[in-house]
Amino acid sequence: MSKFISGEDRNQSTLFPESLEDYVSEDNTVRVIDVFIEELNLAELGFKGLTLKSTGRPKYHPATLLKLYLYGYLNRIQSSRRLETECQRNIELMWLLGKLAPDFKTIADFRKDNGGGIKNVCKTFVEVCRRLNMFEKPVVAIDGSKFKASNNKGNNFTPSKVKFHIDRVEKNIERYLELLDEADKEQANVTKIKATKDRLADFRSQLKKLHEIKEQVEAHPDKQISTTDPDSRLMKTQGFTRVVSYNVQSAVDTKHHLIVAHDVTNVPDRGQLASMTKLAQEALRKKDIRVLADKGYFSQPDIKDTIDLGAEPIMPKTDTSSSEKKGIFNRSLFKYDANKDIYLCPAGNELQNRMQVFEQGKYLDVYFNHIACRDCKIRSQCTNSKKDPRRIRRWVHEVLTEEMLQKLKNQPELMLHRKQTVEHPFGTIKLWMGATHLLTRGLKSVGTEISLHVLAYNFRRMITIMGVNGLSKAIRVALP
Question: Which residue intervals define the domain Transposase InsH N-terminal in the entry (predicted)?
Answer without folding.
Answer: 19-112
